[in-house]
Amino acid sequence: MDVQKAYNLWAQQYDTNDNKTRDLEGRAFRETLSGYNFKHCLEIGCGTGKNTLWLKEMAEKIIAVDLSEEMLNKAKLKVRSDKVEFIQADILREWSFLNGEKFDLITFSLVLEHIENIDPIFQKMTSVIEPGGYVYIGELHPFKQYAGSKARFETEKGLMVVDCYNHHISDFARTALRNGFTIENLNEYFDESNRTGLPRIIVLLLRKKD
Description:
Elements: H1 3-10, H2 20-33, E1 38-44, H3 52-55, E2 59-66, H4 69-78, E3 84-88, E4 103-109, H5 119-126, E5 129-140, H6 142-146, E6 152-155, E7 158-161, H7 169-178, E8 181-190, E9 199-208
Parallel strand pairs: 1-2, 1-4, 2-3, 4-5
Antiparallel strand pairs: 5-9, 6-7, 8-9
Protein backbone atom coordinates (compact mmCIF):
# COMPACT_ATOMS: atom_id res chain seq x y z
CA MET A 1 0.00 0.00 0.00
CA ASP A 2 1.23 3.50 -0.87
CA VAL A 3 3.15 4.93 2.10
CA GLN A 4 1.29 8.23 2.41
CA LYS A 5 -2.15 6.66 2.10
CA ALA A 6 -1.21 3.92 4.53
CA TYR A 7 0.02 6.24 7.27
CA ASN A 8 -2.93 8.58 6.83
CA LEU A 9 -5.15 5.58 7.50
CA TRP A 10 -2.94 4.15 10.24
CA ALA A 11 -2.83 7.46 12.14
CA GLN A 12 -6.19 6.84 13.79
CA GLN A 13 -4.86 3.81 15.67
CA TYR A 14 -1.08 4.24 15.52
CA ASP A 15 -0.68 5.32 19.15
CA THR A 16 -3.04 2.72 20.59
CA ASN A 17 -2.53 -0.55 18.72
CA ASP A 18 0.00 -3.20 19.77
CA ASN A 19 3.23 -2.31 17.96
CA LYS A 20 6.49 -3.80 19.21
CA THR A 21 8.50 -2.10 16.48
CA ARG A 22 7.19 1.38 17.36
CA ASP A 23 7.78 0.88 21.07
CA LEU A 24 11.25 -0.65 20.81
CA GLU A 25 12.45 2.01 18.38
CA GLY A 26 11.25 4.64 20.84
CA ARG A 27 13.37 3.03 23.54
CA ALA A 28 16.36 2.82 21.19
CA PHE A 29 15.93 6.49 20.27
CA ARG A 30 16.09 7.61 23.88
CA GLU A 31 18.96 5.36 24.89
CA THR A 32 21.06 6.33 21.89
CA LEU A 33 20.61 10.10 22.21
CA SER A 34 20.43 10.37 26.00
CA GLY A 35 23.17 12.61 27.37
CA TYR A 36 23.42 14.76 24.24
CA ASN A 37 22.19 18.31 23.84
CA PHE A 38 21.48 19.81 20.45
CA LYS A 39 20.70 23.28 19.16
CA HIS A 40 18.80 22.53 15.98
CA CYS A 41 17.23 19.18 15.14
CA LEU A 42 15.60 17.91 11.94
CA GLU A 43 13.29 15.02 12.80
CA ILE A 44 12.38 13.01 9.69
CA GLY A 45 9.35 10.78 10.11
CA CYS A 46 8.03 12.35 13.30
CA GLY A 47 4.73 10.49 12.91
CA THR A 48 2.38 11.17 15.79
CA GLY A 49 5.17 12.77 17.82
CA LYS A 50 6.23 9.73 19.86
CA ASN A 51 9.87 10.83 19.81
CA THR A 52 9.22 14.55 19.42
CA LEU A 53 7.89 14.75 22.98
CA TRP A 54 11.22 13.53 24.34
CA LEU A 55 13.39 15.30 21.77
CA LYS A 56 12.01 18.75 22.58
CA GLU A 57 13.65 18.47 26.00
CA MET A 58 17.04 17.77 24.38
CA ALA A 59 17.10 20.38 21.61
CA GLU A 60 16.61 24.13 21.39
CA LYS A 61 14.64 23.95 18.13
CA ILE A 62 13.07 21.09 16.16
CA ILE A 63 11.70 20.89 12.65
CA ALA A 64 9.53 17.77 12.63
CA VAL A 65 8.71 16.44 9.17
CA ASP A 66 6.33 13.74 8.00
CA LEU A 67 4.75 12.65 4.73
CA SER A 68 1.37 11.96 6.32
CA GLU A 69 -0.96 14.85 7.06
CA GLU A 70 -3.01 12.73 9.47
CA MET A 71 0.02 11.63 11.47
CA LEU A 72 1.07 15.28 11.75
CA ASN A 73 -2.41 16.26 12.95
CA LYS A 74 -2.00 13.79 15.82
CA ALA A 75 1.49 15.10 16.59
CA LYS A 76 0.31 18.72 16.72
CA LEU A 77 -2.31 17.80 19.33
CA LYS A 78 0.24 15.90 21.39
CA VAL A 79 3.24 18.25 21.21
CA ARG A 80 2.55 21.88 22.00
CA SER A 81 5.81 23.79 22.14
CA ASP A 82 7.29 26.91 20.61
CA LYS A 83 10.43 24.86 20.04
CA VAL A 84 8.74 22.61 17.47
CA GLU A 85 7.69 23.39 13.90
CA PHE A 86 5.74 20.68 12.06
CA ILE A 87 6.04 20.40 8.27
CA GLN A 88 4.32 18.07 5.81
CA ALA A 89 6.83 17.16 3.10
CA ASP A 90 8.02 14.39 0.82
CA ILE A 91 11.75 13.93 1.49
CA LEU A 92 12.22 12.30 -1.92
CA ARG A 93 11.75 15.77 -3.39
CA GLU A 94 14.01 18.79 -2.89
CA TRP A 95 14.34 19.88 0.72
CA SER A 96 13.30 23.46 -0.05
CA PHE A 97 11.03 23.40 3.01
CA LEU A 98 14.15 23.91 5.15
CA ASN A 99 14.94 27.34 3.69
CA GLY A 100 18.69 26.79 3.91
CA GLU A 101 18.71 25.97 7.62
CA LYS A 102 21.51 23.85 9.12
CA PHE A 103 21.22 21.18 11.83
CA ASP A 104 23.48 19.52 14.37
CA LEU A 105 21.12 16.50 14.62
CA ILE A 106 19.03 14.72 12.00
CA THR A 107 16.90 11.72 13.01
CA PHE A 108 15.16 9.02 10.99
CA SER A 109 12.71 6.77 12.81
CA LEU A 110 11.28 3.86 10.81
CA VAL A 111 11.52 5.86 7.59
CA LEU A 112 14.24 4.48 5.36
CA GLU A 113 12.56 1.08 4.98
CA HIS A 114 9.97 2.91 2.85
CA ILE A 115 12.58 4.39 0.49
CA GLU A 116 13.99 2.25 -2.30
CA ASN A 117 17.24 4.17 -2.86
CA ILE A 118 18.68 5.75 0.27
CA ASP A 119 21.75 7.33 -1.34
CA PRO A 120 19.92 10.51 -2.53
CA ILE A 121 18.65 11.01 1.03
CA PHE A 122 22.19 10.90 2.38
CA GLN A 123 23.28 13.34 -0.31
CA LYS A 124 20.56 15.77 0.77
CA MET A 125 21.66 15.41 4.38
CA THR A 126 25.20 16.50 3.58
CA SER A 127 23.94 19.92 2.50
CA VAL A 128 21.95 20.64 5.67
CA ILE A 129 24.01 19.12 8.48
CA GLU A 130 26.68 21.01 10.36
CA PRO A 131 30.25 19.65 10.35
CA GLY A 132 30.48 17.38 13.36
CA GLY A 133 26.69 16.98 13.44
CA TYR A 134 24.99 13.67 14.23
CA VAL A 135 22.51 11.49 12.36
CA TYR A 136 20.37 8.94 14.19
CA ILE A 137 18.85 6.10 12.17
CA GLY A 138 16.44 3.64 13.79
CA GLU A 139 14.95 1.01 11.47
CA LEU A 140 13.27 -2.36 11.41
CA HIS A 141 16.25 -4.72 11.40
CA PRO A 142 16.98 -6.27 7.98
CA PHE A 143 17.05 -9.71 9.64
CA LYS A 144 13.38 -9.20 10.54
CA GLN A 145 12.69 -8.12 6.98
CA TYR A 146 14.36 -11.26 5.64
CA ALA A 147 11.93 -13.24 7.83
CA GLY A 148 8.97 -11.44 6.25
CA SER A 149 8.26 -8.63 8.72
CA LYS A 150 6.90 -5.40 7.26
CA ALA A 151 5.06 -2.33 8.50
CA ARG A 152 1.44 -3.50 8.67
CA PHE A 153 -1.80 -2.87 10.52
CA GLU A 154 -5.32 -4.23 10.70
CA THR A 155 -8.39 -2.35 9.45
CA GLU A 156 -12.05 -3.20 9.03
CA LYS A 157 -11.17 -4.14 5.45
CA GLY A 158 -8.36 -6.46 6.48
CA LEU A 159 -4.58 -6.33 6.83
CA MET A 160 -2.82 -3.36 5.24
CA VAL A 161 0.85 -3.82 4.36
CA VAL A 162 2.90 -0.67 3.71
CA ASP A 163 5.32 -0.52 0.76
CA CYS A 164 8.78 -1.47 2.09
CA TYR A 165 12.27 -2.14 0.75
CA ASN A 166 15.11 -4.17 2.22
CA HIS A 167 18.35 -2.39 3.10
CA HIS A 168 21.23 -4.53 4.30
CA ILE A 169 23.51 -3.44 7.12
CA SER A 170 26.30 -2.96 4.60
CA ASP A 171 24.01 -0.69 2.55
CA PHE A 172 23.62 1.67 5.49
CA ALA A 173 27.34 1.56 6.30
CA ARG A 174 28.64 2.05 2.76
CA THR A 175 26.17 4.83 2.00
CA ALA A 176 27.12 6.66 5.18
CA LEU A 177 30.86 6.40 4.55
CA ARG A 178 30.48 7.38 0.89
CA ASN A 179 28.72 10.59 1.92
CA GLY A 180 31.27 11.75 4.48
CA PHE A 181 29.90 10.26 7.70
CA THR A 182 31.65 8.17 10.32
CA ILE A 183 29.82 5.44 12.23
CA GLU A 184 29.89 6.41 15.90
CA ASN A 185 27.64 3.61 17.12
CA LEU A 186 25.82 0.57 15.74
CA ASN A 187 23.42 -1.32 17.98
CA GLU A 188 20.70 -3.94 17.77
CA TYR A 189 17.58 -4.19 19.92
CA PHE A 190 15.79 -7.45 20.66
CA ASP A 191 12.27 -8.20 21.88
CA GLU A 192 12.37 -8.41 25.68
CA SER A 193 16.19 -8.17 25.38
CA ASN A 194 16.25 -11.82 24.32
CA ARG A 195 19.39 -12.06 22.21
CA THR A 196 18.67 -15.65 21.15
CA GLY A 197 16.05 -14.44 18.67
CA LEU A 198 16.16 -12.12 15.69
CA PRO A 199 16.90 -8.46 16.50
CA ARG A 200 13.91 -6.20 15.81
CA ILE A 201 15.56 -2.77 15.56
CA ILE A 202 18.89 -1.65 14.15
CA VAL A 203 20.34 1.71 15.20
CA LEU A 204 23.16 3.68 13.64
CA LEU A 205 24.55 6.90 15.05
CA LEU A 206 26.54 8.73 12.40
CA ARG A 207 28.70 11.83 12.63
CA LYS A 208 29.52 14.22 9.79
CA LYS A 209 33.23 14.67 9.33
CA ASP A 210 34.53 18.12 10.31
